[in-house]
């Protein structure tokens, strides 16, 4: 965009952000922002107050900056978030859940297209989908209570749990539900503690037939909220109310949660969602392009489905960006444009790789702990993985040898260099090691 309109650009950026963020987060922090001014390459964005501006900056600043550069093609753009000094008071996210305390179902925070109609069923998500459908039809069977859906990021958990809410709402039989992200529940609990008044918190669970809680893994470390939640869970369950939970991992891997909660999570149906197979990815792409009223060739579909394998949100992100490009440039989406777009998404993945997630992936692969990798032991079964981690860090991040060394308990840069050399040499004679490293690299960089 040469002569670009920054106000337009911000609106565009918001609509993209809305597609990639949880709706509750978007509504709470970004929705009320607006373009204020452009100073050279600094775009000034106004928020309702400085509290929201500060939060938005720390949580989404980098993401939004990247988005705005992607959309505009101007790599020099930077964002500044401003707002008048905040009146001390609750953030908007806290008031979200407070609004419904009366036993009515709240649909304001549901994404309109997260419905069953818009959910492509494949072998990867069949059981979770069947469970969600059964629950929404009111099968009311103890074997589905709770329904616990788990899977990696961007695989459709929020979509499915909201689809249940939509279905309950549309059917209009007056069955009440409460859809709640676990982060909001925790916020709400903290507020109750601050005000020393738990009645509102408890009311969240009153007079509902369905409790739909998204991202239950966020209860980790929230001892008090867990305790309260445990009692509410029992009450609802005993009264035959349906509970649906989502999580990024299976119950038994929620190690930081109380054992008694974990065992309750396993009372009903535990269903996982895996990354979609190729055919399912194609079907999802077709649906997404249809929504955008954009037609693309089969080659382009195939290219996208083959490049992005692990995360439906990334698939959706690419489709939304291609649609935006097509609208802004009034061009058809051809293979060239698709390739450029995918390459830039892959680039941003690589930028997100950190020492921490490389270490975790390597540790998991070699069956040792991240702590052991970072520690001092020099046994071969730890030494080799440690050296592999150093070498992948050098390759996949922009960390210097010195930074890598200090990440590994303050080793110096020559140790790091020697380690990398050694792995290079070992790889030449050890095909198994070479395969392992290639697989790790693929895992870390694939999307
Ligand atoms: P999660 O909560 O598991 O991180 P989401 O439910 O937010 O993931 O899904 C990410 C994006 O992918 C959403 O835009 C969602 O609509 C889309 N999506 C995921 N799975 C499917 C599917 N099977 N069919 C259609 N869209 C899907
Ligand atoms: Mg989610």
Detailed description of the structure:
- With 447 residues, the chain is of the alpha/beta class.
- The protein folds into 4 domains: 6-82, GMP Synthetase, Chain A, domain 3; 97-273, P-loop containing nucleotide triphosphate hydrolases (Rossmann fold, 3-Layer(aba) Sandwich); 278-347, Helicase, Ruva Protein, domain 3; 353-445, Chromosomal Replication Initiator Protein Dnaa, Chain: A (Orthogonal Bundle), CATH 1.10.1750.
- The protein has helices at residues 6-20, 23-30, 50-72, 92-98, 126-136, 157-171, 182-195, 199-203, 223-238, 259-265, 278-291, 298-307, 312-329, 335-352, 355-366, 370-374, 380-396, 401-407, 413-429, 431-445, and strands at residues 34-39, 42-46, 78-82, 147-151, 177-181, 210-214, 242-247, 269-273.
- The strands form 2 sheets. Strands 5-6-7-4-8 form a 5-stranded parallel sheet, with helices on both faces. Strands 1-2-3 form a 3-stranded mixed sheet.
- Helix 11 (278-291) crosses helix 12, helix 13 packs across helix 14 and helix 18 (401-407) packs across helix 19.
- The chain is globular and about 65 Å long.
- The structure holds adenosine-5'-diphosphate and magnesium ion.
Give the low-pLDDT segments. Answer: 88-103
What's the gyration radius in Å?
Answer: 24 Å
Percent of residues in beta strands: 5-15%
Task: Summarize the biggest pleated sheet.
Answer: 5 strands, parallel
Mean pLDDT equals: 87
Question: Can you give the helix content as a percent range?
Answer: 55-70%
- Output the helix-strand order: HHEEHEHHEHEHHEHEHEHHHHHHHHHH
